[in-house]
Structures are given as structure tokens and as C-alpha cells.
Amino acid sequence: MFLKIMSSLDTQEKIKARAISLFNEHGTGSVSIGRIASEAGISRGHLQYHYANKQELIRAIYQDIAAEVLSNWEGDDKQPTVRHMAEMFVRQFHYVWKYRFLYREMVTLIRVDSELARRIRDNRARRIEAVIKFFRALARNRVLKKLRGEESLRYLVMITWIFCDNWLNFIEIQGNEINSQTLQEGYDHIIEMLYPYLTRQARESIYESYELIRFPQPLT
After folding, report:
1. Do the beta carbons of residue 110 and residue 117 sit within 8 Å?
2. What is the three-class DSSP state of 217?
3. What gap in Å lies between CA 19 and CA 58, rounded to an integer?
4. Closest to 76 measured CA to CA, from 22, 166, 124, 137
5. What is the pTM (predicted TM-score) of this model?
6. Which DSSP string corresponds to 140-193?
7. Residue 24 half-sphere exposure toward CB, CA atoms < 13 A
8. I need a surface site. Which of 127, 177, 190, 200 has the fewest CB within 10 A?
9. pLDDT at residue number 146
């Protein structure tokens, strides 16, 4: 029984991995369940034993995404530094790249699947509050200057959030290559947005944070 369960889980992981790769390359609308099954090396019937349709498969992928965020992204407010802010940007950049089909198509996907929409909105609401908590910690640690109030802090978080969600889409629309230089430019934009709110001490540590942004390896 244990081996059967493990085999079933392995098959599900294989299906999701192939689906993510195909969705990233071609978009969800252009990829059929049959093609995912073929590239995963199983029959269509075998795939549909695990996931009845594409909506169900996308929900399962998003469930993994949410679990990844929950397990790996807690406690940012315990490290309220410019360096950790850079680490968070790099982490988000690679996350958006890894699941880029979701960010390209999120509005369309939630319009046709109310359950997926609920999950995405609930998860994003929790993450926004976590980032606001991090920004409050930055202010307490004298990385950020004192803002006009809680509403101003929330607006600042939302501005950086909107940018991070859409940076790769912007680059792709421009027809530019997405690589390590893209990461550098994205971080430049984040710093430019935050610079008026950074303390002198924080501004002096910006250059050290750039060592986290330079990646010699290509994005995969």
C-alpha cells in the first residue's frame, strides 16, 4: 500500500512538473490534457485518474505554490535589513519566473475558476500583510524613515508589490531577453522607488546588497 501511494504521488509530481513547463512555454490555453499526459509518459486516462480536467490540475499546482510560500517565506520581519530586502526581491523574481504562466494569465484564470480565485486572493491577502509587517520592522530598525502613517506604509508596499508581480511581463512585452541583467534592472527600480524613504544608514548599505543580485548562471 505504501509503495502504491508513493507511486501515485510520484506520478502526480511528474504530471504537475510537465504541466508547469508546457504552460510556461505555450500558455494554458494552448496545452491540452492529452499533450501533458503524452509528455509525462502516461495515458490521458491515467492523468485524468489524478486530475479530472485542466482546471483541477491548475488548482493542484497553485496549492503547491501556496504551500511553498507558507513554508519558506515566514519570518521576513525578523530580518529587517536592506540585505534581506534584496533577498526577498531575488526570491520573488525567481518565484515569478518559475510560475510565469500564472502571472501572465492570472486574471483570465480566476475569471473562469471561482475556487482558484478564492485561493489566490486569500493567499495574496496573507502575503501582503506579511510584507507590511516586514516594512513596519524596517521602520523600527531605522531602515525606512518614519512615514506619514499606516496608510502610507500600506501604499508603499502595494506599489512595490505591483511592480514585482508585473516586471517580467513588462520585459517580455518589450521583447527583451529575460536574464540576470533583468534581475539587476528590476532591483534598480525597487531601490529607486524606495530611495526617498530610506535612511542615510540604509542608503549606505545598498551597494552591499547588490552582491545578491548578480547571478552568473542563466535563468532556467
Report:
1. yes
2. coil
3. 9
4. 137
5. 0.86
6. HTTSBPPPS-HHHHHHHHHHHHHHHHHHHHHHHHHT---SHHHHHHHHHHHHHH
7. 15
8. 200
9. 83
Confidence at residue 219, expressed as pLDDT on a 0 to 100 scale: 52
What residues contact 93, with CB distance under 8 A and at least 6 apart?
164, 167, 168, 183, 186
Contact 72, 144 (CB under 8 A): no
3-class SS string, 19-88: HHHHHHHHCHHHCCHHHHHHHHCCCHHHHHHHCCCHHHHHHHHHHHHHHHHHHHCCCHHHCCCHHHHHHH
- CA separation for the pair 34, 69 (Å, rounded): 30
| pLDDT, position 216 | 44
Quote the pLDDT of residue 69.
85
Cα–Cα distances in angstroms (integers) from residue 63 to residues 59, 75, 99, in the given order: 6, 21, 12
The segments of the chain whose pLDDT lies below 70 read 1-6, 214-220
**Cell for 27?**
500558455
Cell triple for residue 11? 506520478
48: number of Cβ within 10 Å:
15
pLDDT the model gives residue 71: 80
